[in-house]
What does this fold into?
Amino acid sequence: MCPAGPEERSVSQTPAGPASALRRGLDDWAQSEGVTWAFVFKALFTAFVALWLAYRLELPQPNTVLVTVFIVMQPQSGQVLAKSFYRIVGTLLGLTVMIPLIALFAQERVLFLLCLSLWMGLCTAGAARYRDFRGYACVLAGYTAALIGLPAIAEPEAAFMQALWRVLEISLGILCSGLISALILPQNSGASLRHLLATRFRDFAAFAGAVLAGQLDVPRLEQLNARFAGEAVLLENLRNASSFEDPHFRLRSGRLGRLNQEFMVLSTRFHGLHQLLQRLQGVPGEQVRAALAPCLAEVGGLLAPLGRHLCNEADAEVLATRLEGSKRELMQLIRDARARLAEQQPGDEQLLDFNTAAEQLYRFANDLHDYALTHASLALHHHDREQWRDSFTPRANGMAAAVAGMRCALLILALGNFWIASAWPSGNTFVLTAAMISALTSTAPNPRRLAWQLLVGASGSAVLGCLLQFWVLPWLDGFALLCCALAPVFALGAWLLARHHTAGYGTGLLLWFCIVALPANLPPYDFNRLLNEYLAALLAMGASALAAALILPPDRPWLWQRLEHDLRMRVVFAVSGKLKGLVAGFESGTRDLLNQAHGLARGRPDVQRRLLRWMFAVLEIGQAVIELRQEQARLPDEPCYAEHMPWQGSVRAMGRALVRLFIQPDESNRQRALAAVEQAIVSVRQTPEARPPQFDSSPLRRVLSHLHFIRSSLLDPDSPLASHAALTGSPAHAA
Amino acid sequence: MPREIALFGVYLPNLTLLFVITLAAGWAIDRLVAWCGLYRHAWHPTLLRVSLFTCLYGALMLSVYH
It folds into this structure.
């Protein structure tokens, strides 16, 4: 990342006065409302350039160009460039699939419709499955297929040329919007990425500093972790987008991915530490808490100042240097604290608690050091830390994607049949609208609401379209006047599109205004046609909204339960997955799943909370299991660490018990898993080891603390494992 | 030089082929310039990249159609 620009530095140094107050006011406006107005201006400019080119090049359907412009229009320019690339790929893919289909089935329209609906279903399922740039390629592949394929049903002999025209029109739209949003007043995703990184770390440091100083706060922990999970997914998207947009970000792409990954590890580790401290609350943990306090204060003291301002690369550099020294001191502090605790002759359990918490704290400091080093390395263009192989692996529920695809295919098949049976002249728009709605809503967490917004937007466009077509357009002469007449409609639509919660209305207004009411090179004035087209569009939208509400809507318990199951399966992945790249795959996949589930359960805080608690249980146990496996993989070649030793066997048995528990979480499985962990702890303790019993020198000591951590999280009364077991335990026993 | 090429029996203007060639060449140059860190000195890197591409494409077109 480049160092902060001169304008950022100068803000704090300008003297107070009316001029500077005005300037600050303008800056604030430019940061908030100004962005929206810049977007409206860009949307208008793009639309008119594209429209002029379409008229000038005498393309047969200028409205396809504008529809494409508005489909791909995004407030962030980095996103536009990245998406444009995938959209062109998607468009060409749609063309490549449709041309053989046209050649094969153009005369058999029922068969053709069947193939078309299957392809659209596939594309919708793909968009719901990937949800990133590949998702856009899928949406555009489906959209292109519908645009090319539907006219071919009505007039098969002209289909091939029509297909080529449509692809040219779509490409023109994509090119215009990509170029203009990247070149004029660009809204860099790089800037938002930097801001997101800095605020995330600031909030984390503030919270962690408070917790280490002794103020535990469970609701805040949950809220922050849910936010971090969403931001981890968002950052990955921004990283992809900015490496398209900015060559400097491309040079740092690996480090940014690494930073995201290290933050996920860091926040999981901190959550584990928080849980351990939480379990030490109360009288029995008193001694251990008192012994730990100076060690916690050492790390907390480093973090607390960072929680008050946004951290840049230089701050990260300072933090890394201080942590370097502090880690050595921390080791000494832990040893002193253990010696003091030993003087009070604590029980075995308490000693184990202390060791586990101290070790977790030391690992936390280590992770923090890694994060600070990576963050500091962003100041340079080239750095060793760029060498990074692991990647963010998104996870999605295959069933949800398949349902979205099936819903789309069924809808198109049904509407297409109605079109063929009724020989409706506007059937083309009828089916096209249904296809576009399915594609647009496939990635939304609440398709019903989006479909409804689109319907309202399109109804608005029907009113505006009729007014414009019969009262305004007949008076106009020339392109400039046409622009003046269209500008209010486009500006309204773009303004709605720019704001997150009204985006659906804007899309509906703009797209269906362009599809139906935009004049072609030879504008037709036919009231019947206009009425028919709008009727077709609105009916198709109603049908899509109905289908989204009736055919297995995704924001319902069936999908929550599936996603919860998928979350639990992450532990199975941690136990049995390949060790290479396991940490990155585990951390990112789990967060991606939670992020989707959280979005789908919006409006149901109880469900969101349950899912969040499952994620915590999965992350805690999964991280401990993975580190246990890494520890086993690096054991030195000595007889007490051999594969056939009893402790190795009991650790394997524990892995199997955990898998069983997370596949079927009931009380008997939890008891079995607990017994397996305790058995493993006993057998590790009984294994003689020829090394000093410090955690930096003795592998068995580290294994022991991982095992103790797993045990304490299985025993946690707040964990969903315990409550789930209490709910389902007795019927399972009865059965 | 002929102004059209036949691709599976469909005549395409040479411009299309040149566009693809320019995309590849422009991408390579872009990587090189970014790796050397030269974009640091540009006011608007994206504008520079697009202009570079346009110049390259224009030069190739002129060499073919002149």
Chain A touches chain B at residues 2, 77, 81, 179, 182-183, 186, 245-248, 250-251, 381 (CB under 8 Å). The two ends of chain A are 61 Å apart (CA to CA).
